[in-house]
């Protein structure tokens, strides 16, 4: 409401500012209260919803773990009554003798091992232990008077004895199940089984579950947190403490009270409790708050309590409160923004103009960047073409180098090859002259034999020249090669070597390996083998005993061929230079230093490898690793 203009004119300027300031402060206070109210509402609703969800999930967890505890307790209930069926137990209770006691001790020991319990023992009507499964141990129960135990007093009266306590002899906690052993209608003794329940605690610890079981005295006997074990969940009176101390149920434990820092009822059997952090395990954390839910266990006076941590729910509640306050703040800001809409319109128009200008500049930069990228792409394509051309040139150079290596090998063996051809030629000359004379004399049988020998010599010369021709022709990267054919061709080519005549060749192929097919071109495999065998012959040239081993090994999809000689071996200083181009240890002009380099290159081109080994017994071994050729199925003749 505005004041009349006439009145405002008569007020001093300083007085006209104060009502506006008061209205502004009041508006800020109201908005702040509204934000806090929304935050509190979000906190309250989120807390109720979160606790309800945790309670529902806790009920399921409580039921599941209660069933697990009940199952763990009841799975041994049959065991004490089982001893009533054993004849030796009955005889021992009626007439105790050392012999019968030893029989029952052995029986109880075996039964205890098979059942997984802590101990099984038999008491007479006076409460003295006659036989026990731990009779071998120093802490044996044998001969002890346990008549003061509540489970014995119940069982000797014909009631099932159920008792949790700490052993007075071993100090080990356990759950005792007792049963009165009858002879007819008369109880003549008591059978007791002591079982361990700490597997439940270990299971809770692995699942990171906060839970504990309290017995009929309100003492925690099982707990996932060891610090809460054997503490009272409610105050114990002096009479109760005296009774528990006299019964030795909990040995000499002080039975301190488990005192939470705070406890608040949430209704429906739910409570919110807080415990101080353990200074040993949680030295840097504050108190822990839990949602406590309790359920009685069937067939026992025990109760299972589940503690569900609330720290995650508290964080979620605070987050929801902040979100609610933030949403309220956002709505307030939107309201103020709508109130200032007229001023914002002008700002938006100016911003739109600036945005259009920036957009135009951005489009121009994008166009420039696109042109740069296109130029870069063209340069990359040109580089790719150059690289492909370089690879093609390199491959051609490699092929030329391979061909040069072949011709170099043929040139090195030219003298031997000429010798191999001169011998048949000289024989041909002699046999042809003799054949003419024998024909003139009419000795047709001798002439026919000479002609047959001439044919064999011509075939031999043809095989030599055919091998040279096949070895010298160019090959490609792709193809298949027969290992047996390649070895035979390589041996035929090097048979003119001076040391070949005295060579002892060993072929150590397993059954069926000689005809293996390899994924490499035939002449390239032959060239590799010629290089390796010729190098081996050169290395053994100075020794009379020359032996060469060709051994193969099938390795699934690959084949390993080893060429090993018994030569002097390769000196250690030159081993690392074996596969370098133009490196050779041969004197004079006997080698170009390209044989091993080309062989390794040909193996690598076929997706294989060539490596060298130096056996301790001497010599040199080269191992050729090549992929096996893919066996294609044969086409049907009717296709």
TrEMBL record:
**Name by which UniProt lists this protein:** histidine kinase
CDD domains documented for this protein: HisKA (cd00082), PDC1_DGC_like (cd12914)
Q: How does it sit in the membrane?
A: Multi-pass membrane protein
Query: What Pfam families does the record point to?
Result: dCache_1 (PF02743), HATPase_c (PF02518)
Q: Which InterPro entries match?
A: dCache_1 (IPR033479), HATPase_C_sf (IPR036890), HATPase_dom (IPR003594), His_kinase_dom (IPR005467), HisK_dim/P_dom (IPR003661), HisK_dim/P_sf (IPR036097), Sensor-like_sf (IPR029151), Sig_transdc_His_kin-like_C (IPR004358)
Transmembrane stretches, start-end: 318-338
Q: Lineage of the native species?
A: Bacteria, Pseudomonadati, Pseudomonadota, Gammaproteobacteria, Pseudomonadales
The cross-references to SUPFAM superfamilies, in alphabetical order and at most eight, read: ATPase domain of HSP90 chaperone/DNA topoisomerase II/histidine kinase, Homodimeric domain of signal transducing histidine kinase, Sensory domain-like
Keywords of this entry: ATP-binding, Cell membrane, Coiled coil, Kinase, Membrane, Nucleotide-binding, Phosphoprotein, Transferase, Transmembrane, Transmembrane helix, Two-component regulatory system
User: Which residues does UniProt call coiled coil?
Assistant: 345-407
The terms under GO molecular function for this entry are: kinase activity
């Amino acid at each position: 409401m505005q004041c009349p203009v006439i009145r405002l004119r008569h007020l001093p300027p300083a007085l006209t500012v104060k009502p506006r300031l008061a209205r502004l402060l009041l508006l800020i206070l109201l908005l702040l209260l509204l934000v806090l109210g929304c935050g509190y509402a979000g906190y309250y609703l989120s807390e109720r919803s979160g606790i309800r969800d945790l309670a529902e999930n806790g009920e399921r967890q409580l039921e599941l773990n209660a069933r697990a505890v009940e199952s763990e307790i009841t799975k041994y209930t049959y065991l004490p009554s089982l001893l009533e069926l054993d004849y030796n137990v009955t005889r021992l209770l009626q007439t105790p003798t050392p012999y019968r006691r030893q029989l029952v001790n052995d029986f109880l020991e075996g039964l205890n091992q098979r059942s997984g319990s802590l101990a099984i023992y038999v008491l007479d009507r006076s409460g003295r232990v006659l036989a026990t499964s731990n009779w071998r141990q120093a802490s044996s129960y044998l001969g002890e008077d346990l008549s003061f135990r509540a489970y014995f007093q119940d069982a000797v009266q014909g009631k099932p004895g159920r008792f949790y306590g700490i052993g007075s002899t071993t100090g080990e906690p356990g759950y005792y199940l007792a049963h009165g052993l009858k002879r007819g209608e008369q109880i003549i003794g008591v059978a007791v089984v002591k079982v361990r329940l700490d597997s439940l605690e270990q299971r809770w610890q692995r699942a990171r579950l906060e839970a504990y079981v309290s017995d009929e005295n309100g003492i925690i006997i099982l707990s996932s947190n060891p610090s809460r074990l054997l503490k009272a969940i409610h105050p114990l009176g002096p009479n109760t403490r005296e009774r528990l101390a006299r019964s030795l149920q909990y040995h000499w434990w002080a039975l301190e009270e488990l005192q939470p820092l705070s406890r608040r009822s949430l209704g429906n059997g739910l409570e919110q409790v807080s415990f101080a952090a353990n200074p040993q395990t949680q030295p840097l954390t504050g108190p822990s708050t839990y949602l406590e839910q309790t359920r009685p266990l069937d067939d026992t006076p025990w109760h299972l309590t589940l503690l569900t941590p609330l720290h995650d729910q508290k964080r979620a509640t605070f987050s929801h409160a902040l979100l609610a306050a933030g949403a309220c703040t956002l709505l307030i800001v939107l309201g103020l923004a709508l109130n200032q809409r007229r001023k914002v319109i002008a700002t938006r128009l100016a911003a739109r103009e600036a945005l259009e200008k920036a957009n135009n500049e951005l489009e121009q930069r994008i166009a420039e960047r696109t042109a740069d990228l296109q130029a870069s792409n063209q340069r990359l394509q040109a580089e790719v073409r150059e690289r492909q051309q370089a690879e093609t040139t390199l491959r051609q150079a490699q092929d030329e180098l391979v061909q040069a290596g072949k011709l170099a090998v043929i040139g090195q063996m030219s003298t031997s090859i000429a010798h191999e051809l001169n011998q048949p030629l000289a024989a041909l000359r002699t046999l042809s002259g003799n054949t003419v004379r024998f024909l003139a004399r009419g000795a047709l049988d001798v002439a026919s034999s000479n002609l047959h020998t001439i044919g064999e010599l011509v075939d031999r010369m043809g095989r030599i020249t055919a091998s040279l021709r096949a070895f010298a022709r160019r090959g490609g990267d792709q193809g298949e090669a027969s290992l047996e054919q390649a070895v035979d061709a390589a041996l035929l080519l090097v048979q003119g070597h001076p040391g070949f005549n005295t060579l002892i060749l060993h072929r150590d192929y397993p059954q069926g390996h000689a005809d293996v097919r390899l994924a490499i071109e035939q002449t390239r495999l032959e060239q590799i083998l010629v290089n390796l065998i010729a190098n081996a012959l050169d290395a053994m040239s100075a020794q009379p005993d020359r032996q060469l081993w060709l051994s193969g090994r099938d390795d699934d999809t690959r084949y390993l061929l080893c060429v090993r000689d018994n030569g002097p071996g390769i000196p250690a200083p030159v081993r690392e230079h074996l596969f370098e181009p133009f490196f050779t240890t041969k004197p004079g002009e006997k080698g170009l230093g390209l044989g091993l380099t080309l062989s390794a290159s040909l193996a690598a081109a076929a997706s294989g490898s060539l490596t060298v080994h130096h056996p301790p017994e001497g010599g040199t071994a080269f191992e050729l690793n090549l992929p096996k050729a893919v066996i294609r199925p044969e086409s049907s003749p009717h296709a």
